Amino acid sequence: MCPEFCNRQGKCVKGKCECDQGFTGDVCNIKLCPENCNGNGGCVDGVCQCRDGYFGDSCSITKCNNNCNNNGICKESKCLCREGLVGDECQFKSCPNSCKGNGVCKEGKCFCDEGFEGIDCSQKICLNDCSGHGICNNG
């Protein structure tokens, strides 16, 4: 006879409990977590307690797309990017001062709009040298 009748979560075979799926232990009293929480959390009474950045019954779903491309950390479903990186998934290099709104950032470099120059497109330039009708004032 098996102790504690295998907690009605298994069957007794030759005096030992053979546990039903989802249970373990000498008397089938320990509830297992799905997929052992995929290594992304701990199992408490058969329920996965997911680490920050993971969710779901088996902690298999990341809260941030592509796990922030390993360029940041996932906090409350948003990527907090390392310095110098931006984007929903930390997938882009950032530009100095976001190009001051006077250009487009590509791969960490500013491509300035017409009439602006500099590493962050903050310097105004005079076009056509004022056509010889004045003095260029970059202000």
Structural commentary:
The strands form eight sheets. Strands 1-2 form a two-stranded antiparallel sheet. A two-stranded antiparallel sheet has the order 3-4. The chain contains no helices and 16 strands. A hairpin with a 2-residue loop joins strand 13 and strand 14. Among the domains are: 32 residues, Laminin, CATH 2.10.25.10; 45 residues, Laminin (Ribbon), CATH 2.10.25. The protein is rod-shaped, with a radius of gyration of 30 Å. By secondary structure, the protein is mainly beta. 0% of the residues lie in helices and 35% in strands.
Q: How many helices?
A: 0
What are the low-pLDDT stretches, counting only 5+ consecutive residues below 50? none
Into which percentage range does the β-strand content fall? 25-35%
**Which architecture name of the domain at 95-139 does CATH use?**
Ribbon
As a percent range, the share of helical residues equals under 10%
Q: What name does CATH use for the topology of the domain at 95-139? A: Laminin
- How is the main sheet built? 2 strands, antiparallel
Number of strands: 16
> Structural class, from helix and strand content?
mainly beta
Radius of gyration: 30 Å
Sequence of secondary-structure elements: EEEEEEEEEEEEEEEE
CATH class category label of the domain at 95-139: Mainly Beta
Quick one: overall form? Answer: rod-shaped
In round numbers, the mean pLDDT is 86
Distance between the termini: 93 Å
Biggest sheet: strands side by side, in what order? 1-2
